[in-house]
Amino acid sequence: MFQEFNLLHTLTVEENIVLPLTLDGHKVPDMKQKAAAIAEKLGITSIMNKRTYEISGGQAQRTAVARAMIHTPKLLLADEPTGNLDSKSSKDVMSMLESINQQERTTMMLVTHDPQAASYCNRVVFIRDGKLYSEIHRGENRQSFFQKIIDTLSLMGGDAHDFSQIRV
Hints:
- By secondary structure, the chain is an alpha+beta fold.
- It is built from 6 helices and 4 strands; from the N terminus they run H-H-H-E-H-E-H-E-E-H.
- Strand 3 (123-128) and strand 4 (131-137) form a beta hairpin.
């Protein structure tokens, strides 16, 4: 999944979703069935015949997710999946990705600067100046995980002598 979605504006939402299948030479009925199934899961059935310039940013992101998932991959790479979205659409997209991760057993690797988006992950690896800085794991509570992310980011924001390594 690309940060800028990379949808083709001359195609409909459905045509964008099935593009990978088209390039692989799948039959039209098979493509339509797969597109309908994934659109249902992602809640975009009502926009399948619209052009991409007629839909919202959240709908465009769901379309990009559908296109990425049409082959049922084992690994999904996402570059700033919420970077162009408002807070509600960001929450919806991350909830959807979390659901895909759990239901489809698709491993996801996200690159993000958004601590809220990162809090939906099971593990967060922090990189500073091209080097591994820290790694934290989610556990049961997403809200406490979000706080751990914020705490780590606050430590990353200064020099080592600026902050105590002990957090209260």
